[in-house]
Amino acid sequence: MEKMRDIIEIDENLCNGCGQCILDCAEGALKLVDGKAKLVGEFLCDGLGACLGGCPTGALKIIKRPAAAFDEEAVARHLEAAGGAPAPQQHACPGKAAMSFTPAAHATCPGSAAMSFQASPPLQTDQLACGCAGSAAGSFKPEAPAASGSYASTLGHWPIKLALLPPHAPFMQGADLALVADCAGLAWPDIHNKLLPGRAVAIACPKLDDAQAHIQKLAELLKAARPASLTVARMEVPCCQGLMRIAQEAVRLAGLNLPVREIVVSRQGKAMAEL
Fold it and tell me: Rounded distance, CA 143 to CA 153, Å?
């Protein structure tokens, strides 16, 4: 059954047959035919655009058109028929490639000593319908800035998962909003110093989460909260490029003239743009 959705489109006049898009597609949805990249089947394409970033000629783009629904089970069968899950150098997302590296040295954190503390009560709360205490929205005063060589959280509200954020929460109204890839929060050690201070934050995964649901939720949030700015922090890996597309599409659906700034974080924890 076809439905309107995002799907890849390939301009054969621009395609030079380099095959980089095939390396970047974790679903094996693309192949070379007569020296040109071709879509194997609509149902294999998730529409997130992990294949876009590596194309040297700009031959690929994401369009919205009637297409067969993405089928994860069919992808699994397709990959198995092709000889199992593809190796990173053949088809799989480069971001999944196993690697190790030596973390940068950092000062010993005085706050690492074992201690107990009593959390401050939220200043404002908005209990969600599910009744889960952990999903109750609230804002609170971040810790004081850390002394040199130590670390402190600059998070100013809860929850932070995009799917759980109440669009009308007071801490979202007119805020500078940061949309952060799940992995970036762990990979970027300076995120609490460079990005989070003074910002509301929403975290999401463009690859494993429901991208369309995130677009709808973010658009709803943007319309209700009217943020002053939107910054996307994502990982350098191709499958994370979809977070920027989620943000841009949500801005479009919300009908806002809101520039979207992008920060790309390397797997070694370096931000490729300064704030």
Answer: 6
Distance in angstroms (rounded) separating the CA atoms of residues 3 and 49: 18
Geometric angle at alpha carbon 212, from 230 and 21, rounded to 5°:
90
Comparing CA positions, the residue from 182, 172, 24 lying closest to residue 88 is: 24
pLDDT for position 152 = 82
Q: Which pLDDT band, with edges at 50, 70 and 90, does 83 fall under?
A: low
Residues 249, 143: Cα–Cα separation, whole Å: 34
What distance in Å separates the CA atoms of residue 35 and residue 30, rounded to the nearest whole number?
Answer: 12
Tell which phi-psi region holds residue 226, choosing left (phi > 0), alpha (psi between -120 and 50) or beta. left
Q: Mutual orientation of helices 211-225 and 242-254 as an angle, nearest 10°? A: 40
* pTM higher than the cut 0.90: no
Distance CA 67, CA 36 (A): 21
CA distances from 171 to 18, 21, 76, 110, 224 (A): 47, 41, 42, 30, 12
The Cα–Cα gap between 32 and 63 comes to: 21
Give tens-digit pLDDT for 195-238.
999 999 999 998 888 888 999 999 999 999 999 999 999 999 88
Strand order across the beta sheet in which 176-181 lies: 199-204, 176-181, 229-235, 260-265
In the chain, DSSP assigns E strands to 2-10, 30-33, 36-39, 60-68, 124-126, 137-139, 157-158, 176-181, 199-204, 229-235, 260-265
Distance, CA of 7 to CA of 24 (rounded, Å):
15
Report the Cα–Cα distance between both ends of the chain, in Å, rounded: 45
